[in-house]
Design goal:
Layout: H1 2-26, H2 31-43, E1 48-52, H3 55-69, E2 74-76, H4 79-82, E3 95-99, H5 109-117, E4 122-126, H6 132-136, E5 139-142, H7 158-177, H8 182-188, H9 192-197, H10 201-204, E6 211-213, H11 218-228, E7 233-236, E8 242-246, H12 248-253, H13 263-266, E9 268-269, E10 273-274, H14 280-290, E11 294-299, E12 302-308, H15 309-314
Helix pairs in contact: 1-7, 3-7
Length: about 325
């Protein structure tokens, strides 16, 4: 069993050395081409069209997905399909990002030729200096020489890791330039746990809130708590501002003569609240930290909605 672990360590160490070499290259000859690639993409009025064959194609799909989800419109075009009609997807205004470790992959020839014919900017990523892809590219990103982790030099491992890392570096550099925020990310990633964590309170809260006035009899207040089903009710002043909350704990504390009291006598003043625009993740943290199950969303003192901890659970935040 230990020999398997030794192999795993060797592979990870070899690929890590490749990434270190890539970082060093960015301090030297790769720095200017990388900046040129970022500027070329920023100037584009269309999309980044990513293409690559084999393992480079798999990496290319991930790079295209990362770009698209971080504010840079992008799509992957398979080079073989491009040769049979999909070249029409690559148009003026686009930027082509073509990946090939050797830079000589036959299947990419047509898409490279297409970019040259129609003056579509081409960014090439390859590991062989002077290769056809890099010579034809407007911006050539040359990967540093690094050993493949397979030990034979024939299985794309370190080279694909470096290509993927360079694609991520491009995506993040573009994202930071565009000041892309978590809220923007959710627009492109509404599903899953991450999308739920980036939801805002106003996306999950209920508009039909349990509310009573300060002078409301406790008989009416109990009916409101029961009718709305949150186990609490907010208490408002004459101007409609949220000034208190009544929970089951408040009811127990005022059990003696409860039905003879008014809401303002039973309520807990200055209840915890949150802005509707706040992330639901922040609301969940507040509820968990304060050991409460409901939180009113308030703007300028006026209640806008109520969020229950079960709403966060149903959204998949936990």
């Amino acid at each position: 069993m230990s020999e398997y672990v030794d192999t795993a360590r060797r592979v990870i160490r070899t690929e890590a050395q490749g990434l270190e070499a890539l970082e060093t290259a960015l301090d030297n000859g790769l720095a200017q081409p990388f900046q040129d690639a970022v500027r070329l993409i920023l100037q584009a009025t269309g999309r980044v069209v990513v293409s690559g064959m084999g393992k480079s194609g798999h990496v290319g799909r991930k790079i295209a997905a990362t770009l698209a989800s971080t504010g840079t419109p992008a799509q992957f075009v398979h080079p073989a399909e491009a040769s049979h009609g999909d070249l029409g997807m690559v148009t003026k205004g686009d930027v082509a990002l073509v990946l090939s470790n050797s830079g000589e992959t036959p299947e990419i020839a047509d898409i490279v030729a297409h970019t040259r014919r129609f003056a579509i900017p081409l960014i090439g990523i390859a590991g062989r200096e002077g290769s056809t892809l890099l010579r034809q590219s407007d911006v050539a990103l040359l990967l540093p020489q690094a050993a493949e982790a397979c030990g034979t030099g024939i299985v794309p491992t370190t080279s694909t890791t470096m290509t993927l890392a360079l694609g991520d570096a491009l995506a993040v550099a573009l994202m930071e330039h565009r000041r892309f925020t978590p809220e923007h990310f959710r627009t492109f990633h509404p599903g899953g746990k991450l999308g739920a964590r980036l939801a805002r309170v106003q996306d999950l809260m209920h508009d039909d809130m349990p509310l009573v006035g300060m002078d409301a009899p406790m008989t009416d207040t109990l009916l409101e708590i029961t009718r709305k089903g949150f186990g609490v009710t907010g208490v408002t002043d004459d101007a409609g501002r949220l000034v208190g909350i009544i929970t089951d704990g408040d009811l127990r504390r005022h059990m003696q003569g409860l039905l003879d009291r008014r809401a303002g006598e039973v309520m807990t003043r200055n209840p915890r609240s949150i802005a509707p625009e706040a992330l639901a993740e922040a609301a969940l943290a507040e509820m968990q930290g304060s050991k409460i199950t409901s939180l009113f969303a308030v703007r300028d003192g006026l209640p806008q909605g109520i969020l229950h901890i079960h709403d966060c659970l149903r959204a998949g935040m936990v």
